[in-house]
Amino acid sequence: MEPSKIKYLLEKKGLSLAEVSRRAGYHESSAGRCIRGTAWPAVEKHISDALGLSPDEVFPDRYKNGIPIKYFARTRKKGKKDA
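Above: the chain sequence. Below: its structure as tokens.
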């Protein structure tokens, strides 16, 4: 779902991204960062709950069968210390 649509649907419910973040116990910019691309399953769940939808309905490219897809596989490059 596009960030503008998420914001619109929240506003229809009388909520802002900052309010969703605060209610979830996160910094007020967290939900905004999440809808703009930062994969953050815990915050995605709070946004989805506020909309009355499942996370995979709101963020379909981040979930498969209701399970978060790992976006950032952190691999370690071999450096001089590892050689």
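The mean pLDDT is 88.
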